[in-house]
Structure to design on (237 residues):
């Protein structure tokens, strides 16, 4: 069977939980926010499961987890405070996942168009990629201008395909969450899930991505499989 990567013209990567472990800096900013509001910080292990639906939803979940009622005035104040704190530390404790840089080099050398498709606000995503030294790999950074454009909406993937001048079937999305898989299915793109991200213990097989990998470099060795009525392929090291 042909390799999956030879059957697509572009690869889009989710950001948080897929190419960069951003939970440390998100958690640090969240806990600073809680302390400044008179609350108690959350354990580090609680943070990853709250990430993925945008900052306002993240802050709402943090407040709820900390026992603070997120009514409108509190949520607005907390969101503003969090954005100020996080903007000062987007890549202090965050780290690029293993083999991401090598994989991006290899894919770009193979002539594939690379995009970053994220629910993160551009004011944080752009400097994060720049500070991590990854921005130069991506032809486009797609971020939601409106809440309704966030994954699982296919809107960002449609935009990525349009910019790459390809059909959705020629785009592969690599992500870590239900939202990524659902967005790819809705857009008609292929999708590979990484099992190390922020998927909140959701069994990835149930969401039926085209494949599941434990290291992003494994996408280069996956074979194309039938897309309907099959279970997800889990790559074997």
């Amino acid at each position: 069977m042909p390799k999956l990567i030879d059957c697509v013209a572009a690869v889009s990567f989710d950001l948080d939980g897929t190419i960069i472990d951003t939970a440390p800096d998100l958690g640090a900013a969240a806990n600073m926010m809680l302390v400044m509001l008179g609350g108690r910080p959350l354990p580090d292990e609680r943070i990853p499961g709250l990430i993925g639906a945008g900052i306002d939803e993240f802050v709402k979940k943090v407040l709820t987890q900390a026992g603070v009622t997120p009514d409108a005035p509190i949520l607005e104040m907390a969101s503003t405070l969090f954005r100020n704190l996080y903007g000062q530390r987007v890549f202090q404790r965050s780290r690029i996942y293993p083999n991401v840089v090598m994989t991006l080099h290899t894919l770009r050398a193979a002539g594939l168009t690379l995009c970053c498709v994220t629910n993160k606000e551009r004011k944080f995503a752009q400097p994060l990629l720049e500070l991590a030294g990854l921005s130069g790999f991506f032809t486009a950074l797609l971020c939601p201008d409106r809440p309704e454009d966030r994954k699982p909406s296919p809107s960002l993937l449609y935009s990525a395909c349009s910019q790459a001048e390809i059909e959705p079937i020629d785009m592969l999305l690599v992500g870590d969450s239900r939202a990524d898989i659902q967005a790819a299915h809705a857009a008609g793109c292929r999708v590979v899930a990484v099992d190390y991200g922020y998927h909140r213990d959701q069994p990835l097989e149930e969401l039926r991505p085209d494949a599941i990998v434990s290291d992003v470099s494994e996408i280069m060795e996956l074979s194309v499989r039938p897309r309907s009525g099959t279970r997800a392929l889990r790559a074997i090291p």
Notes: The chain has a mean pLDDT of 91.
